[in-house]
């Protein structure tokens, strides 16, 4: 891994960036978009497995997250920015990765909230993508779409800069629980690592302004109009746990999204891992999940 660096967005926000580069030939590039209340540094183990196969990895700390929050403010887009700036950031990093590794296939992976960002980004700017990976996705996310008007009303009433509680409700299916974040993984060590990370969880809650903008983006990302703009024939890999509360009971919302993508003629490979929870790359069967991702990427590279 290269040392963390930063880049300046067009609006002046300083975005923390990480790169993991193979020692030898670069065969492909994977761009990662992390989820809510986490950061790009948590994907180092996955990146190590991919660089061992010649796949370079790049990721930003999203606006309001990780080290980028030092510029934008925690849980905020930054002065005058909104969800479109998040998509611009994904596009701009993708262009830099393509320039740094010319002539090799480029893939985009989004986890959780990042999966909706990746889906919306692929619809808006995905012409050069060789494939899209959705990890722990929100699926069709009917609950979030329904919450957007209330969030927008809170912002209009002056609460845009106030912190909002988002993640706590996901633990309800696992009560009585050891921690408030048992819903992330069956592996206690992974849950404890998340809790101990000052750049994760309750230490970096989103504001109502951020939530209103991002949840509206989530709703748009799975809308018919947005899905219709995805590049024709774009291969899609979907990875989720059957007990991930984000994707609905038995991954019902994730399966619904996969069906919508297939309806548009996209080749979709869906893996629902029995009893796995939200962070499949940090689950007890993470080696299986990583192997499935590697096999899918290798299949695209040999096609």
Automatic annotation (TrEMBL):
<feature type="domain" description="Serine aminopeptidase S33">
    <location>
        <begin position="25"/>
        <end position="285"/>
    </location>
</feature>
<feature type="region of interest" description="Disordered">
    <location>
        <begin position="63"/>
        <end position="82"/>
    </location>
</feature>
<protein>
    <submittedName>
        <fullName>Lysophospholipase, alpha-beta hydrolase superfamily</fullName>
    </submittedName>
</protein>
<dbReference type="InterPro" id="IPR051044">
    <property type="entry name" value="MAG_DAG_Lipase"/>
</dbReference>
<dbReference type="InterPro" id="IPR022742">
    <property type="entry name" value="Hydrolase_4"/>
</dbReference>
<keyword id="KW-0378">Hydrolase</keyword>
<dbReference type="Pfam" id="PF12146">
    <property type="entry name" value="Hydrolase_4"/>
</dbReference>
<dbReference type="GO" id="GO:0016787">
    <property type="term" value="F:hydrolase activity"/>
</dbReference>
<dbReference type="InterPro" id="IPR029058">
    <property type="entry name" value="AB_hydrolase_fold"/>
</dbReference>
